[in-house]
C-alpha cells in the first residue's frame, strides 16, 4: 500500500512537492510551502506523504460505499478542486477562530479543530461530539470531586511543623499532566513580536499550548483534537489504527488498555506479524488486511468479512461497542447516556455514577437493552474469528470480574469509611479532601489501579497483567495493607 | 519468505481458497469452508495463509533431514494426500474426544489437542508431554500450598467486624487469572440450542472454555494446547519464534522473561533489526536468518551454523537447555526430574522443592551431571556469537546471583518466621494460610517478584530490569519494610 | 537502503564472505575467518553484513562533507586499503593493550576499545571522551556517597538478633547490576588453558568480563565501549539510532527515557510507522528518512532539512543539546562542566552537585549562557516540525516541572532530616548510611524514581508516564507514606 502511494506521489515528490503535474495544489498553499518547506521540513514532508496531498476532495467524493472517506455530502466549491494543503485547513472558518491572526496577508489560525475537519469529515466529527472523550476536559475539571483529585496529585506539598501544606497546581503543571490527554483550554492571550530568519513577525500567544488532548477546548469553541490520534501532518489512518497511538493515554495503571493488549493473543499476533498488515485499507478486511484486531479494529474501524459484507460500521463514538465503563469511578458501571458526565449526581450528593456502596445511579446510565445492543456490535466482531461458545464464555467471565472487582473496591471503601469514623483520617465529615491522606491514597489505588487493571485484563484477555503485574495480587494485598495502616494508627489513638 | 509463500498460494487464494488447481483440499474440509468462510472469515483467512493449507502431509514427509517438519514416521492414509484443513483436525480421533458432537453429519470436536497434532508431529508432542508446562494445571491446583495461594490471590474479601473474611474464588475467576496460562480443565457440560444465520444448531457447552493454557486438560485426556504458542489457525512458526508469544505468560513480575529480554542486547537487536529476519526458515541459521536469539532461539528451535551443522536440536521439553529453575519456589533450585511436581515433598512435609531454609530436596531434582549436560547445550548456542571467556564469565555471575538472591529470600523467610513466633502473624503453627497477611504478602513478593526478577535479569543479561526496575533495589528495601512492619506490630503487643 | 547494501554485498556474500571479487580483505583477517566462520558463525555473519566489511577506509575517506563517516584525517597506510576485518581491530595498537595475547602467531586483544575505533573515527572518540557517560564507572564508584548506595542496593542482608547485617557486594554482583551499564574495570588476570575443537589454546582471563558498559575501563586505559550502542559485529548505525538501544540502560524507573518515549507522540509514530524509515542515511533527513525523532535524532545524530542544510551537527558528547541534568542527584540541576563529577563537593562537604536543600553548587555546573546555547541546539531540531509557540510552551512547562519536582524532593528531604533529628532513623550525624533504612529508601524513591520520572515525562512529552505510571501520583503519595512512617515510629519512642 505504502509502495503504491509512493509510486503515485513520486513525480510530485521529485519536483519539490508543491508544483508540477501532480494533484493540484492551491496558490495559497503554494505560498505557505515556499517558506514552510524550509522552516518546518518535517511536517511538510509528512503532509506530502499524506492522502490530503494526493487527492482533491472532489476526486475523493467520487468514491462511494464502504470505501468512502469523505463523509460530507458537499464540500465548499472553493475547496473541492485542490488538494487539502496548509491554507485549506489553517485559514478555514477564520471568523470562527478567535486565534486567527494576520500572517503575510492571510487570516491564519494555528489550532485546526474538529470544526475545521468536519468540512469534509462531517459524520466522524458528529460522532466524536457524542464521544465521551470530547468532554474529557470538562468531565475532569468541572466535576468538583475529580478536580480535587487533580489538585491533590499535581499540587506541591511543603512541610510545615511536621505536617504537609498543599499549594494547588498551576496551569502549566495541569497542562503537562492530566490535561495532556484530557485537553487544555486554548485561548488567545495576546500577540508577541518574534525575530525570525524571514524577518520580524507578530505571532499569537495561546494559553494551554501546545496540546493535542482528546477533549481540548478550541478557540472556535469546538471540543477535541483529531490530531490526538491522526497526528499532524500525515493524518495517517495507519497511525490511528496502530495500538501505540492509543497507548499515549492508555498505558498507565489507571487505564491500562495497552499493557493488557500486549500480553493478549491479539497483541502477540500484532507484535509478531503486524509488520506485514495493510493498515490503510478501507474498509478493513478481517483476516485479509489484518489477522488480529488492534484497538481500532474492535472499537472504531469499519470492518468487512472476506465477502465484503459489513462486520462493523465505522464509529468515532468509541463506546458504541461497549456496554460497560470498566474504568471505575469508583466502581465499574454501565456507560453514561450523555458524554457530559458533570450532570451526574448520586443519592449521596456526590458527582459519581455510582453510590459509594457501588449501586449504580441508573437514571444517568444506559439501560440493559442499550447495553445489549452495544455488546452485540462488539460480539459480531469477535465472532469473525471465534465460535459462539468461546465468545459467550469470554463475556461471562468479564461479568464475573466486574462483580468481584467491585466487591474488592467495596471492601476497601468500607475500611476507609471505618478509618474516617474512628477519626484516623479526615474525610467528607470533616470537609477534608478524600484524596490527601495515606489510607485514602491506598483506597484510590484499589479502584483506579488494581480493580481497573483486573477488569481490563479480563476484557481484553491479557490475563498476565491481571494477576501479578497490576491486578488481583494487589487487590488482595492492598486490603491487608489498609487494615494494617488502620490497626497501627488505631494503636496510636489509645 | 512471506512473499515466497504468497506467491505459492496466490492461485489458491485468488480462486476463493478451497477449490481450483491449488494443493488438494478434502471434500470434508470443503464442506466446512462453505459456511465457515463466511461465518469466521478471520480464521479461514489465517488458515489459507498457513503451511497446513499449502502442502499435503505426503509432500511434507518427503522433506528429510534438518528441514523436516512432519516428524511422524507414518501419517494415516486417509490424511496424507490432502492438505490439513478444518475437517482433518476437528474430526480426528473423534471417539477419544468426549466433546465430539454431531454437526451437519460430522462428529466434530472444538478442542483440538496435542493428541490430534501428534498424528503428524509425534516427536514434538512426545517432548511436550515431558515439558513441565504440560503439567501446569496439576502442578498448581493439586499442590495444596500453591492452591492456597491461588485462593488468597483470587478470592474476594469482605470486611466483617474490622477483619476481612475470604470467599474462595469461583471457577470463572480462576480460569480468567492463573488458569489462563496454566490451563483449565475442559469438559463437556451439556448441549445448548443456538439460533444462527444458518438455522438452529445444537452446540456443546464446555467448562473452562475458552482456554489456550499450556497445561490445559483436554476432553481427550491429553495435556496442553499447541495453540498456546502456534496460535490458530495459521499455526505460524514465525509467531512461535517471536518473543511476544512468550510474553503472554512471561511478562509479569513473577516470571519476567520478556521485560528482561527487552532490555538485553539480544532484545535490543531484535527490536531494531528483527523486522528483516526470516522467522520461517527450518533449520534456523544463526547469523543468517537472525542476528540475535529470540526466546525460541535459546530454548526451543533447531539451530545450525553457516555450514549447516547443528548447533542445537529442536526440543519441546523447554528445560532441555536449562539446569536451574530460576523461578523460585521459594528458592531457585535445580530443575525437577519429573514434569509432575506434585510428587515432591520436603523434609518439613511441605510440597516444595526446597526446605524453607533453602536446602534443595535433592531426590526430586536433576543431579549435577544432568545439569552440566543441559548447560552444555545452552552454552553451545551462546558460543555461536560469544567467546568462551565471555560465556564462562556470564554463567559465573548467574551462579553468584542464584546464591545471593537465595540469601535475600532466606533473610525474608527468617523475618517471617520470627513474626510467626512472636505471634504478630498467624502461620502454619496456627494452621493459618501463609499467604493472607500483610507481612506474608511482602514475603511472597521477596521471592516471587524480586529474587526472581533479579535472577532473570542476570540469566538473560538484562541488567536494567534487575536493579531498579524490579530487582535488587526491592530485594533490599522489602527486607527493611518487613522489619518495620514487625517492629511496629510488635510495639502494639506490649 | 538495506536492499541497496545487500545488492552491493551480494557477490561477496555468495562467494563465502572473505574471498573473491568483493572488497579486499586482508590476509590476516582471512586467516581469522578460516576458523571463526565456523566457531562463531553469528558474529562473522554480522560482520559480513556490516559497512566495515563492504568498504575500505581509503574508499570511505573519499566521501566528503555531511556524508562522511570516517572522521580521521589520515588512516595508517597498512589499514587503509583493506576492509575493516577481524585482524584490523583485534590486533591494532597491541602494545597499548595489556590484554594482548599470543594467538596463532598474532598479538590479539579481545577488548576492542574507543582507543582502537578512534583510528578511523577520531572526532567521535574525542567527543565521547567529553561525554559524561565515558566517566560512568568512576563517577559512580569513586563518589563515596554513590558507592555507598551501590553497596546498600547490591549487598546481601542477613538477620541477626532481629536486625539485618549487611555483607557488601562482591565484584560479580556489581558487574551484573550497576556496572553492567556503567562499565566494569577490565584487566588481565592471567591465562587459562582451554581444550577446543581446534586443539589446546591459551586464552586470557579478564576481570569484569563480559561487559559493554558505556564507561568501561579498558585494558588500554581508555574509557567506554563503542559496542554499547553500535553492537558488535555489525556496528550498525540503524541499531544505534533505534530507541531500543538506549532502552538497555534507560528504561528502569531511575532514568525512564524509553518508557516515556513510548507514550509520547514521537514514540507512537516510531512504533507505528518506523518500520518504513531509513535508519542508515547519513546525513539523516528530517521528514524524509524519518518522520519522528528517535533518541539519537534529538541527542546525537547529524540532521539536515529537505534542502540538505544542517539542522544539528553530529555529537557523541550527548549533553551538547541538553542544558539540564534531569536525573536528580538529588535535585535536577544544570549539567556539570566536567564529565568527571568526582571533583564536585557541595558546601556541606557532600560529593553532590546541589546542597541537600536543592541549591546548585554553581562553580561546577555550566552557566546560563552555555545552557542557552545547548537548549538552542535542541530547539532548532524541535522547530523542524513545531512552531515557535509550541516549542516555547513546551520548555516553559519543563522549567516549571524542574521547579515543582525539586520542591517535592525538598519536602521529602525535610521529612527525612526531621526523622534523623528525632532519632527515628540514623543518618550522617550517626555516621550511618543514608540509604539503608526504610524511610531513607522511600526518600531515595522520591528523587530517583518519582521526581526523575516526572521530569522525563515532561521533557519528552510522555505525560501518561508522569502522572499515574511513575510520576506525580507517587511524588504526592510517598510524602504521606514518609509522614505516616515517622508518625508511627514516633509513637514507639514515647
Alpha-beta classification of chain A: mainly alpha
Profile the largest sheet of chain A. 3 strands, mixed
Rg of chain A over CA atoms, rounded to whole Å, is 25 Å
**Number of separate helices of chain A:** 22
CATH superfamily annotation of the largest domain in chain A: Hydroxylamine Oxidoreductase, Chain A, domain 2
Largest interface, and how many residues on either side?
A: A-B, 68 and 72 residues
Instruction: State the end-to-end CA separation of chain A.
Output: 73 Å
Low-confidence stretches of chain A: 1-19
- Which CATH architecture of the largest domain in chain A is right? Up-down Bundle
Classified by CATH, the class of the largest domain in chain A is Mainly Alpha
- Share of residues in strands of chain A: 5-15%
Strand order in space, largest sheet of chain A: 7-8-9
Number of strands of chain A: 11
Oligomer: homotrimer
Q: Roughly what is the average pLDDT of chain A, rounded to an integer?
A: 94
Number of domains of chain A: 3
Query: Can you give the helix content of chain A as a percent range?
Result: 40-55%
Label the overall shape of chain A.
globular
Amino acid at each position: 500500500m505504502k509502495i503504491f502511494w509512493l509510486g503515485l506521489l513520486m513525480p510530485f515528490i521529485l519536483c519539490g512537492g508543491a508544483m508540477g503535474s501532480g494533484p493540484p495544489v492551491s496558490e495559497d498553499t503554494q505560498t505557505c510551502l515556499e517558506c514552510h518547506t524550509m522552516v518546518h521540513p518535517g511536517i511538510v514532508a509528512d503532509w506530502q506523504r499524506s492522502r490530503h496531498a494526493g487527492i482533491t476532495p472532489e476526486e475523493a467524493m467520487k468514491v462511494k460505499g464502504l470505501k468512502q472517506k469523505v463523509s460530507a455530502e458537499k464540500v465548499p466549491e472553493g475547496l473541492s478542486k485542490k488538494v487539502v494543503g496548509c491554507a485549506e485547513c489553517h485559514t478555514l472558518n477564520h471568523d470562527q477562530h478567535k486565534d486567527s491572526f494576520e500572517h503575510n496577508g492571510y487570516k491564519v489560525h494555528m489550532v485546526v479543530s474538529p470544526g475545521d475537519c468536519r468540512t469534509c469529515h462531517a459524520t466522524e466529527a458528529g460522532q466524536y461530539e457524542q464521544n465521551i472523550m470530547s468532554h474529557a476536559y470538562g468531565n475532569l475539571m468541572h466535576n468538583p470531586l475529580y478536580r480535587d483529585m487533580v489538585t491533590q496529585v499535581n499540587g506541591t506539598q511543603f512541610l510545615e511543623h511536621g505536617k504537609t501544606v498543599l499549594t494547588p497546581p498551576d496551569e502549566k503543571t495541569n497542562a503537562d499532566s492530566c490535561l495532556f490527554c484530557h485537553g487544555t483550554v486554548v485561548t488567545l492571550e495576546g500577540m508577541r513580536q518574534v525575530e525570525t530568519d524571514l524577518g520580524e513577525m507578530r505571532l499569537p500567544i495561546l494559553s494551554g499550548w501546545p496540546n493535542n488532548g482528546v477533549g481540548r477546548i478550541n478557540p472556535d469553541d469546538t471540543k477535541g483534537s483529531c490530531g490526538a490520534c491522526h497526528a499532524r501532518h500525515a493524518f495517517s489512518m495507519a497511525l490511528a489504527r496502530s495500538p501505540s497511538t492509543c497507548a499515549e493515554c492508555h498505558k498507565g495503571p489507571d487505564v491500562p488498555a495497552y499493557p493488557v493488549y500486549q500480553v493478549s493473543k491479539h497483541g502477540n499476533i500484532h507484535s509478531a506479524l503486524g509488520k506485514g498488515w495493510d493498515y490503510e485499507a478501507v474498509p478493513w478486511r478481517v483476516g485479509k488486511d489484518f489477522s488480529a484486531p488492534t484497538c481500532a479494529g474492535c472499537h472504531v474501524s469499519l470492518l468487512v468479512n472476506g465477502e465484503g459484507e459489513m462486520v462493523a460500521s465505522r464509529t468515532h463514538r468509541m463506546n458504541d461497542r461497549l456496554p460497560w465503563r470498566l474504568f471505575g469511578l469508583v466502581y465499574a458501571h454501565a456507560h453514561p447516556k450523555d458524554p457530559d458526565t458533570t450532570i451526574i449526581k448520586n443519592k449521596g450528593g456526590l458527582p459519581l455514577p455510582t453510590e459509594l456502596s457501588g449501586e449504580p445511579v441508573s437514571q444517568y446510565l444506559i439501560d440493559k437493552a442499550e447495553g445489549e445492543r452495544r455488546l452485540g456490535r462488539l460480539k459480531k466482531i469477535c465472532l469473525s474469528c471465534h465460535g459462539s461458545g468461546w465468545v459467550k464464555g469470554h463475556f461471562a467471565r468479564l461479568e464475573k470480574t466486574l462483580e468481584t472487582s467491585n466487591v474488592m473496591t467495596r471492601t476497601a471503601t468500607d475500611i476507609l469509611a471505618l478509618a474516617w469514623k474512628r477519626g484516623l483520617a479526615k474525610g467528607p465529615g470533616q470537609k477534608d479532601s478524600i484524596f490527601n491522606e495515606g489510607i485514602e491514597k491506598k483506597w484510590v489505588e484499589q479502584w483506579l489501579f488494581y480493580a481497573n487493571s483486573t477488569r481490563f485484563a479480563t476484557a481484553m484477555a491479557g490475563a498476565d497483567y491481571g494477576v501479578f503485574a497490576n491486578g488481583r495480587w494487589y487487590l488482595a494485598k492492598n486490603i491487608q495493607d489498609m487494615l494494617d495502616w488502620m490497626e497501627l494508627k488505631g494503636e496510636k489513638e489509645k
